Amino acid sequence: MNQTRISVCALALSLLFPVSALAGVTLKAINTHSYEKSLYEAAAKQQIENGAPVDKQAFSVKSDDKVLGNILAGQGFNANDDNVCFVSWAAPDGKIQNLVPTIGFDNWEAEVCGGTRAVGVLADDKDSIKLAVIYDAQSPNASAVESVIFSVNTATGAFTPDNALTAKLGSQGAATLQALKTLYRASH
Questions:
Q1: 101: β partners
Q2: pLDDT at 14
Protein backbone atom coordinates (compact mmCIF):
# COMPACT_ATOMS: atom_id res chain seq x y z
CA MET A 1 0.00 0.00 0.00
CA ASN A 2 2.74 2.50 0.96
CA GLN A 3 4.74 1.52 -2.13
CA THR A 4 1.70 2.32 -4.30
CA ARG A 5 1.29 5.72 -2.62
CA ILE A 6 4.95 6.53 -3.18
CA SER A 7 4.67 5.55 -6.85
CA VAL A 8 1.53 7.64 -7.30
CA CYS A 9 3.19 10.62 -5.57
CA ALA A 10 6.30 10.26 -7.75
CA LEU A 11 4.15 10.13 -10.88
CA ALA A 12 2.17 13.20 -9.78
CA LEU A 13 5.38 15.14 -9.08
CA SER A 14 6.86 14.18 -12.45
CA LEU A 15 3.76 15.55 -14.16
CA LEU A 16 3.86 18.79 -12.18
CA PHE A 17 7.56 19.51 -12.62
CA PRO A 18 9.36 19.18 -15.95
CA VAL A 19 12.51 17.08 -15.95
CA SER A 20 14.60 20.25 -16.35
CA ALA A 21 13.29 21.56 -13.04
CA LEU A 22 14.43 18.40 -11.31
CA ALA A 23 17.89 18.47 -12.92
CA GLY A 24 19.08 21.31 -10.75
CA VAL A 25 19.29 24.30 -13.12
CA THR A 26 18.15 27.50 -11.48
CA LEU A 27 18.14 31.19 -12.29
CA LYS A 28 18.41 33.68 -9.46
CA ALA A 29 17.84 37.39 -10.04
CA ILE A 30 20.95 39.51 -9.50
CA ASN A 31 21.61 43.18 -8.92
CA THR A 32 23.13 44.72 -12.06
CA HIS A 33 24.66 47.82 -10.48
CA SER A 34 28.17 46.34 -10.39
CA TYR A 35 27.93 45.50 -14.12
CA GLU A 36 26.87 48.91 -15.42
CA LYS A 37 30.35 50.21 -16.29
CA SER A 38 31.69 46.96 -17.75
CA LEU A 39 28.52 46.44 -19.82
CA TYR A 40 28.73 50.00 -21.11
CA GLU A 41 32.35 49.42 -22.19
CA ALA A 42 31.72 45.97 -23.71
CA ALA A 43 28.69 47.29 -25.61
CA ALA A 44 30.71 50.21 -27.01
CA LYS A 45 33.17 47.70 -28.51
CA GLN A 46 30.20 46.24 -30.43
CA GLN A 47 29.08 49.69 -31.69
CA ILE A 48 26.25 49.86 -29.14
CA GLU A 49 25.93 53.29 -27.57
CA ASN A 50 24.79 53.73 -23.95
CA GLY A 51 24.67 49.98 -23.36
CA ALA A 52 22.98 49.18 -20.07
CA PRO A 53 21.43 46.16 -18.34
CA VAL A 54 17.67 45.68 -18.60
CA ASP A 55 15.92 45.97 -15.24
CA LYS A 56 14.87 42.60 -13.78
CA GLN A 57 16.38 40.59 -16.67
CA ALA A 58 19.72 39.54 -15.16
CA PHE A 59 20.27 36.18 -13.50
CA SER A 60 22.88 33.96 -11.94
CA VAL A 61 22.80 30.54 -13.63
CA LYS A 62 23.39 27.55 -11.35
CA SER A 63 23.57 23.90 -12.26
CA ASP A 64 23.56 21.42 -9.40
CA ASP A 65 24.57 24.18 -6.95
CA LYS A 66 27.52 25.30 -9.11
CA VAL A 67 27.37 28.88 -10.41
CA LEU A 68 28.19 28.75 -14.13
CA GLY A 69 27.91 32.48 -14.74
CA ASN A 70 25.50 35.38 -15.04
CA ILE A 71 23.27 36.19 -18.00
CA LEU A 72 22.39 39.86 -18.43
CA ALA A 73 19.96 41.20 -21.01
CA GLY A 74 20.95 44.66 -22.20
CA GLN A 75 19.79 47.52 -24.36
CA GLY A 76 21.29 50.54 -26.08
CA PHE A 77 21.34 52.41 -29.37
CA ASN A 78 23.01 51.82 -32.73
CA ALA A 79 24.66 54.48 -34.90
CA ASN A 80 21.22 55.44 -36.31
CA ASP A 81 19.93 55.99 -32.76
CA ASP A 82 17.62 52.95 -33.04
CA ASN A 83 16.88 50.85 -29.96
CA VAL A 84 18.93 47.65 -30.00
CA CYS A 85 19.29 44.76 -27.58
CA PHE A 86 22.08 42.42 -26.57
CA VAL A 87 22.88 39.61 -24.17
CA SER A 88 26.03 39.40 -22.11
CA TRP A 89 27.58 36.61 -20.08
CA ALA A 90 29.72 37.16 -17.02
CA ALA A 91 31.92 34.59 -15.33
CA PRO A 92 31.16 33.71 -11.70
CA ASP A 93 33.83 36.27 -10.71
CA GLY A 94 31.74 39.01 -12.38
CA LYS A 95 33.95 39.64 -15.43
CA ILE A 96 32.05 40.09 -18.72
CA GLN A 97 33.23 37.30 -21.02
CA ASN A 98 30.90 37.65 -23.97
CA LEU A 99 28.48 40.24 -25.33
CA VAL A 100 26.22 39.20 -28.22
CA PRO A 101 24.29 41.89 -30.13
CA THR A 102 20.80 40.58 -30.97
CA ILE A 103 17.80 42.67 -32.08
CA GLY A 104 19.02 45.44 -34.39
CA PHE A 105 22.02 43.43 -35.64
CA ASP A 106 22.82 40.57 -38.02
CA ASN A 107 19.65 38.50 -38.67
CA TRP A 108 17.59 41.21 -36.95
CA GLU A 109 19.27 44.29 -38.43
CA ALA A 110 16.00 45.48 -40.02
CA GLU A 111 14.27 45.46 -36.62
CA VAL A 112 14.47 47.68 -33.58
CA CYS A 113 14.19 46.33 -30.07
CA GLY A 114 10.96 47.14 -28.28
CA GLY A 115 12.11 45.46 -25.09
CA THR A 116 13.10 42.23 -23.42
CA ARG A 117 10.08 40.13 -22.41
CA ALA A 118 11.80 37.25 -20.67
CA VAL A 119 15.02 35.42 -19.93
CA GLY A 120 14.84 31.80 -18.87
CA VAL A 121 15.88 28.17 -19.10
CA LEU A 122 14.59 26.52 -22.25
CA ALA A 123 16.10 23.09 -21.63
CA ASP A 124 19.02 21.35 -20.00
CA ASP A 125 20.85 18.09 -20.19
CA LYS A 126 24.05 16.72 -18.75
CA ASP A 127 26.40 18.73 -20.97
CA SER A 128 24.50 21.84 -22.03
CA ILE A 129 21.86 24.27 -20.83
CA LYS A 130 19.72 26.15 -23.34
CA LEU A 131 18.84 29.69 -22.26
CA ALA A 132 16.34 31.79 -24.17
CA VAL A 133 15.76 35.52 -24.39
CA ILE A 134 12.42 36.70 -25.77
CA TYR A 135 12.06 40.17 -27.29
CA ASP A 136 9.45 42.52 -28.66
CA ALA A 137 10.77 43.73 -32.02
CA GLN A 138 9.47 46.16 -34.61
CA SER A 139 10.21 46.73 -38.27
CA PRO A 140 8.80 49.53 -40.41
CA ASN A 141 5.89 47.28 -41.41
CA ALA A 142 5.20 44.99 -38.47
CA SER A 143 5.73 44.03 -34.86
CA ALA A 144 7.06 40.62 -33.90
CA VAL A 145 8.13 38.51 -30.97
CA GLU A 146 11.65 37.13 -31.50
CA SER A 147 13.60 34.60 -29.45
CA VAL A 148 17.34 34.11 -29.32
CA ILE A 149 18.73 30.91 -27.84
CA PHE A 150 22.10 30.38 -26.19
CA SER A 151 23.99 27.31 -24.97
CA VAL A 152 25.95 27.11 -21.74
CA ASN A 153 28.46 24.28 -21.44
CA THR A 154 27.98 22.86 -17.95
CA ALA A 155 31.61 21.71 -17.68
CA THR A 156 33.33 24.92 -18.79
CA GLY A 157 30.68 27.62 -18.38
CA ALA A 158 31.23 28.66 -22.02
CA PHE A 159 28.32 30.74 -23.36
CA THR A 160 27.58 30.71 -27.09
CA PRO A 161 24.67 31.62 -29.36
CA ASP A 162 22.82 28.55 -30.64
CA ASN A 163 22.33 29.84 -34.18
CA ALA A 164 20.75 26.64 -35.53
CA LEU A 165 18.12 26.45 -32.79
CA THR A 166 17.48 30.20 -32.99
CA ALA A 167 16.93 29.88 -36.77
CA LYS A 168 14.52 27.00 -36.17
CA LEU A 169 12.46 28.48 -33.31
CA GLY A 170 13.32 32.16 -32.92
CA SER A 171 10.80 33.68 -35.33
CA GLN A 172 7.89 31.39 -34.47
CA GLY A 173 6.25 34.07 -32.34
CA ALA A 174 6.47 32.37 -28.94
CA ALA A 175 5.58 35.19 -26.55
CA THR A 176 6.36 33.27 -23.34
CA LEU A 177 8.99 30.82 -22.16
CA GLN A 178 6.29 28.17 -21.80
CA ALA A 179 5.24 28.62 -25.44
CA LEU A 180 8.88 28.45 -26.54
CA LYS A 181 9.41 25.28 -24.48
CA THR A 182 6.41 23.72 -26.22
CA LEU A 183 7.92 24.53 -29.63
CA TYR A 184 11.29 23.18 -28.48
CA ARG A 185 9.82 19.88 -27.28
CA ALA A 186 7.85 19.49 -30.52
CA SER A 187 11.05 19.99 -32.55
CA HIS A 188 13.01 17.28 -30.70
A1: 86
A2: 39
Nearest to 111 by CA among 85, 132, 88, 87: 85
- Listed in sequence order, the residues at least 6 apart from 124 whose beta carbon sits closer than 8 Å to its beta carbon are 20, 23, 25, 63, 130, 154
* Angle at alpha carbon of residue 111, lines to 106 and 113, rounded to 5°: 100
pLDDT of residue 114: 97
- pTM equals 0.85
CB 114 within 8 A of CB 54: no
**Residue extents of the structural domains in the chain:** 20-187
Distance (Å) of CA 150 to CA 77, 80, 139, 140, 164: 22, 27, 24, 27, 10
DSSP state, residue 64: T
- What gap in Å lies between CA 168 and CA 148, rounded to an integer? 10
Quote the radius of gyration of the chain (alpha carbons, Å): 18
Give yes or no for a contact between 180 and 166, defined as CB atoms under 8 angstroms apart.
no
Residue 68 confidence (pLDDT): 96
Q: Split the chain (188 residues) into runs of 10 and give each run's mean pLDDT.
A: 41 41 80 96 98 97 94 97 97 95 94 97 91 96 96 95 96 96 93
Distance of alpha carbon 46 from alpha carbon 88, whole angstroms: 12
Q: What type of residue sits at position 155? A: A
